[in-house]
Amino acid sequence: MADFNTYFLMKADEVISYVKEKTDFFDRNADLSCTEIGDGNLNYVFRVIDGKSGKSQIVKQAGDTARISDEFKLSTNRIRIESNVLKLEGELAPGLVPDVYLFDEVMNCCVMEDLSDHTILRTALNEGRIFPKLADDLTTFMVNTLLLTSDVVMEHKAKKALVQDYINPELCEISEDLVYSEPFTDHNNRNDLFPANKEWIEENIYGDDKLRFEAAKLKFAFMTNAQALVHGDLHSGSVFVKEDSTKVIDPEFAFYGPMGYDVGNVVANLIFAWSRAYVTNADEKYVSWLEDTIKDTVDLFAKKFLASWQENVTDIMAKEQGFDRWYLDSVLQDTASVTGMEMIRRIAGLAKVKDMTTIADEAQRVAAERICLSSAKQFILESASYKTGEQFLTVVKDAASRHNMR
Questions:
Q1: Checking CA distances to 222, which of 262, 275, 333, 362 falls within 20 to 30 Å?
Q2: Where is coiled-coil annotated (predicted)?
Q3: In this structure, what is the dihedral angle of CA atoms 21, 27, 31, 34, given to the nearest 10 degrees?
Q4: Which sequence spans correspond to the domains of the chain?
């Protein structure tokens, strides 16, 4: 029998022994089976199910290298960060994250609620499915977890203690490289460009000095603006959905950074879905819902942010007239910038999204990528111009009209 007092990477049969020894979630006579279900870039994820009762749970374990590439050497401390952040997010945004049952600092794993009755949002969007609560749920999650962990609400020394607790250098370095550096320079020769768009990207992204200058400024803002406890990887692969439920998962990239990093990631990934739907002539009802969701994500965030500000802000100077709107405008400017950065890095960088890569028709994929990249450049270069959801959507629609290959 395995000894769980010393760290090692578990296989499925060892996970069964582990949950029997470490948790009391299942009955003693449970008929347990285990399957590895993870397809992410970093960790090992297992589902354990009792064949008799149907009860199940997830076991997530961190390795010391990324699955996407052995070049990324990682501290297994990220699973502690993920477990603790999920617990905190569960307090700040009840019902919008999975429950955590156990964190094990020896085996570097977390045991949590199984969300198998949900679907990964990216998969669902690529299938053209509609989720009426999505924008409302995600904006509630972001306002509650971002504003309530910032200096304007928290006692300042308590906030600084959280900044220290959530220092996350290895995973921040991944973002610094894959989001803020390589998509503009390919200095590590890891970028994987779609051949039909390679020349266009080299000319319009790598070859744009002004764009790269703005990306440089954004990189150092990302590294130095300890504004709030951000999720750090809030794309459509980090959200589970069903019609009446939204759950945000995988906050292992969490650290104290700019609020707009989370909001921009959400907006960018909705735009990926819209661009795919546009070029593939998806159902009009679905496209209309996506457009409303993009607009509502920006507008509901702003509305809820200002309402929460009035209710929760404690700092005396943050109560000065007009400061709330000024602060929100800065978050929205960061949101626009990050929307652009995320769209560029997912097309011109190493880590792709299936929204783009599974478009079978070459001409359609070329168009979808150029819609995203053209929009991205505008969001970065004119980031202060975008304060409403309609303004964000207009940029994308204008880009679509320029790259229309229908």
A1: 275
A2: none
A3: -50
A4: 12-113, 119-402
Residue with tokens 């490289």: 177
242: tokens are 């069903």
**Residue 69 pLDDT exceeds 70:** no
The structure tokens listed for 303 are: 């509305």
Judge whether 12-113 and 119-402 match in fold: no
Q: Is 311 exposed, middle or buried (0-12, 13-18, 19+ CB in 10 A)?
A: exposed
**Cβ atoms of residues 107 and 10 within 8 Å:** yes
Indicate the DSSP class of residue 247: E
Q: Would you say domain 119-402 falls under CATH 3.90.1200.10?
A: yes
Query: What CATH superfamily is the domain 12-113?
Result: Phosphorylase Kinase; domain 1 (3.30.200.20)
pLDDT in tens, 32-58: 999 998 765 678 999 999 999 999 999
Evaluate whether 12 touches 58 at the Cβ level (below 8 Å).
no
pLDDT, tens only, 164-210: 999 999 899 999 999 999 999 878 889 989 999 999 999 999 999 99
- Stretch 1-30: mean pLDDT: 92
pLDDT exceeds 90 at position 406: no
One-letter amino acid of 370: R
**Selection from 192, 251, 235 nearest residue 341 by Cα:** 235
Mean pLDDT of the chain: 95
